[in-house]
Amino acid sequence: MIKNKKLRILIYFFVALYVLGKLNVTADKSMSELALIYAQAPSKFTEIEGINIHYRDEGEGDVIVLVHGTGSSLHTWDDWTKDLIKTHRVIRLDLPAYGLTGADPKKRYSSMDYVNLLDTFLIQLGVNDFYLGGNSLGGLISWLYTSYHDEKVKKLILLDPSGFPFRSTPFVIQFAKTPVLNQLLRYFTPKSFIEKNLKEVYYDDSLIRQETIDRYHNLTLFEGNRQAFIDRAYIEREDYTDRLEIIQTETLVLWGENDAWIPVDDAAKFQSALSNSTVKIMPKTGHVPMEERPEESLSIVMDFILN
After folding, report:
1. Helix (H) and strand (E) counts for the chain?
2. What domains lie within the chain, and their CATH numbers?
3. Residue-wise pLDDT tens digits, 72-99
4. FRET partner for 261 with CA separation of 20 to 30 A, picked from 163, 267, 282, 298?
């Protein structure tokens, strides 16, 4: 008996599509097909430990490094980047398992794997003094990175970061960890499924653009990404939150009040654990403030950076 109500609903969703004859195998998409849309200039690629990292490095000035969350890509920061590159150098990358970086052949998807890869990536670019921001999983990677490299990070920006143990596992992760059922994610990924997930991370559904749905769907279908998502779901999650107290870097914790994935109550946990932090709560905002309300969220961040 599957206890997670949302997981049961998702299964019924797939079954209904099958019964209606609308559930067809969704083919992978190749790099040559997707690069034409999502890897045009200023996109670049660099190899790190056998992984072909897709990244963008734009603008001039003080460096801001931005790290996306689960199921996302560097494009989640597009709206912010348009303004930030007027005054700053902005570096963002697709984490392994996502975007056009894609799967790691060695399945290195733990939090520390990501931290070590980020460090190698920045060293390769010759960057050792920067502002660091991350959303969700990217927030976890950012604060965990800072706990080891506090001296490199000028200021830390966390948007709805993960890290504290979940009271319940998000249904899509539980789905990915369920044998047999997870093959639905691997081979059957209708665009309506992606849209459903986006409606969970946005508070205001009307702000979801069709091009955003298309992008998430297309990059999910990049060859290897769906299997990588399943492989990541089986990675044992470790609790590193005792390292938060090590961080001395001034930190902004920015949270969407209506986050349905990570409860806004966790903002207080971060504030309590971080000795030099400020918390800002955005009303009528979900899990991805930089996408849902880019102007308002960036305004808060720039006030933090400049003051």
Report:
1. 13, 8
2. 5-306 (3.40.50.1820)
3. 999 999 999 999 999 999 999 999 999 9
4. 298
